[in-house]
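Budget justification aside, the reviewers requested a transparent look at the raw inputs and outputs of the sequence design task funded under Objective 1. We therefore reproduce one unedited record. The lines immediately below are the structure tokens for a 601-residue chain.
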């Protein structure tokens, strides 16, 4: 989902199977060039890793700002820039201005595109008016507007090539995710789970904008593009009507399962991977059943959209543990056998490693020791509960009915990690994970559905775990064993994406506004720089004229920073985030800035 902080507040390529030719071969080659950064995650495997080695653990202390650029927009800057040749592209929060900057002239504006959107979309945008980035393909820049419009812009001129409306903001559907370009398709998800929007992923033709296929998160098999016999869940066919029968009546029609997170792609398997979010409403008493296929990892065929396999991480979600976080693809050995893996750090506090070919669950362990809503994931393949969490009733809202305040639940609804993407190093074979270290009280209450109005039904408050003062950690994680290797505490949640370099440096940003560099092997802090505002964006690296650069967008906001971004003061506003992060205003203020760093001469 995208958390409701509105009214209350509220490389690889695109190789097709069967030996077909590369589609969009130019983009594939570009993604293999470390001098550029041509996709939001760098390339299709979502590792957020750069082969560049000019910046090292020894010299990173000499990083200095090379140039800066004011975006002219407040609110949360949750995306990151692309670099294609001599040009950098990025998009701001609403009103979603797209900039093309000349790297030969310290960021001179080549063109900018500002869409005309109805500002009435702002009140139905969850967790701030964010946008997670633009994408590139076939000479075009693609942007997903707040009002759900997908636009294709000429990369050289910024002129509109085509546009298509994907959803209806009047019923709560909005666009916050970065488009995902694969071959001849552009894929986007949808936000709006807090308004009862039924989530889906849409695939559009790259050249024309014509809808190719759309797969929903729940509903009839024809809507979800699930095959009762061919779609697998933990090694077994899902069977007919696998979604509808897990909902009461027609609740699935307003069932949530939004798809506003990140996507990845395996070109050899021709499979697209992503996660679906929380079921609607947040009051679990009103939606008995497993509520499939919310909270699910999906593997879909790129050509048809048919689901090859699914895995539901949090059946009958009672905590708002959205499953939309990134799916990182690696090839590693487990028990001495090389496997094609998918690793996912879920909001529910578990780090999952699955076989991305079959969907077999291999590892499921807590990546924050304070997680208490569940004792473990059942890994016994002979058990009827195989793959399900063992839930602790004390920490399960709804287990004693609605209008009961369930206290001390860890993690909070924003999870042990929200959308802020982790990175992976094929050098250390470790994942580097920005995390939240936050607990909550959660009181569900009955709510009625009205199209376009919040459909939440819960009051929350947030705070650090008992005995701790830090609200975040930046960790190194062994995905084959499910173990924390090292952990660096942070005062606030680490809400930025991570970047790992081949030389052994890991970059991430903090809500106070520091861009930090740490040693990939030890976690030792090597360098930091205070940017003009809190960082919730994603770090990237590129090289221009023989010099390596690090780029980051700062601009506090998002769910954790919604109090600052939207001017909220009541502790329970922003679904508890305002009170939990009240001290953030002592460290930073609003303002969007792009800062580009390089080594001092």
């Amino acid at each position: 989902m995208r958390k409701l902080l509105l009214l209350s507040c509220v490389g690889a390529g695109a190789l097709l199977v069967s030996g077909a030719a590369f589609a969009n071969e130019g983009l594939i080659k570009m993604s293999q060039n470390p001098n550029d950064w041509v996709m939001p995650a760098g390339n299709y495997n979502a590792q957020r890793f750069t082969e560049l080695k000019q910046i090292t653990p020894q010299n990173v202390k000499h990083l200095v700002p090379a140039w800066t650029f004011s975006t002219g927009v407040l609110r949360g800057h949750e995306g990151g820039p692309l670099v294609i040749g001599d040009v950098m592209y990025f998009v701001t929060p609403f009103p979603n201005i797209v900039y093309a900057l000349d790297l030969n002239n310290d960021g001179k504006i080549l063109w900018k595109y500002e869409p005309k959107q109805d500002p009435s979309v702002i009140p139905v945008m969850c967790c701030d008016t964010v946008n997670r980035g633009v994408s590139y393909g076939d000479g075009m820049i693609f942007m997903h507007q707040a009002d759900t419009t997908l636009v294709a812009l000429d990369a050289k001129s910024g002129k509109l090539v085509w546009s298509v409306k994907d959803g209806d903001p009047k019923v709560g559907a909005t666009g916050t995710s970065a488009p995902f370009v694969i071959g001849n398709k552009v894929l986007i998800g949808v936000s709006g789970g807090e308004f009862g929007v039924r989530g889906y992923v849409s695939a559009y033709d790259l050249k024309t904008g014509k809808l190719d296929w759309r797969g929903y998160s729940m509903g009839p098999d024809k809507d979800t593009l699930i095959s009762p016999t061919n779609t697998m869940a933990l090694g077994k066919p899902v069977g007919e009507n696998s979604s509808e029968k897990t909902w009461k009546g027609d609740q699935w029609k307003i069932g949530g399962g939004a798809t506003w997170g990140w996507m990845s792609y395996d070109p050899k398997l021709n499979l697209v991977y992503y996660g679906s979010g929380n079921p609607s409403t947040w009051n679990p008493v009103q939606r008995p059943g497993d509520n499939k296929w919310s909270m699910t990892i999906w593997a879909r065929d790129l050509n048809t959209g048919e689901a090859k396999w699914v895995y539901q991480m949090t059946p009958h979600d009672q905590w708002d543990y959205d499953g939309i976080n990134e799916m990182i693809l690696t090839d590693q050995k487990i028990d001495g056998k090389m496997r094609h893996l998918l690793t996912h750090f879920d909001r529910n506090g578990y780090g999952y490693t699955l076989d991305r070919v079959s969907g077999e669950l291999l590892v499921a362990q807590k990546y924050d020791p304070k997680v208490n809503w569940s004792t473990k994931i059942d890994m016994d393949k002979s058990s009827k509960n195989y793959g399900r969490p063992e839930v602790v009733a004390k920490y399960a809202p709804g287990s004693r009915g609605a209008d009961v305040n369930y206290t001390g639940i860890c993690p909070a609804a924003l999870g042990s990690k929200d959308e802020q993407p982790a990175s992976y190093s094929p050098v250390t074979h470790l994942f580097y994970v920005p995390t939240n270290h936050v607990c909550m009280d959660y009181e569900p209450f009955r709510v009625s559905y009205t199209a376009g109005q919040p459909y939440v039904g819960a009051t929350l408050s947030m705070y650090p775990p008992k005995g701790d003062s830090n609200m975040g950690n930046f960790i190194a994680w062994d995905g084959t064993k499910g173990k924390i290797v090292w952990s660096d505490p942070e005062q606030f949640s680490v809400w930025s994406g991570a970047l790992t370099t081949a030389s052994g440096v890991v970059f991430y940003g903090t809500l106070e506004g520091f861009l930090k560099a740490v040693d990939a092997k030890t976690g030792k802090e090597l360098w930091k720089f205070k940017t003009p505002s809190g960082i919730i964006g994603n770090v990237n690296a590129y090289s221009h004229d023989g010099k390596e650069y690090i780029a980051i967008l700062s601009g506090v906001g998002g769910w954790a920073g919604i109090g600052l971004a939207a001017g909220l003061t009541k502790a329970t506003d922003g679904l508890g985030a305002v009170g939990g992060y009240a001290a953030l205003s002592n460290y930073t203020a609003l303002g969007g800035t792009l800062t580009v760093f390089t080594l001092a001469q």
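The two ends are 45 Å apart (CA to CA). Confidence is low (pLDDT under 50) at residues 1-23. Computational costs for records of this kind are itemized in the attached budget.
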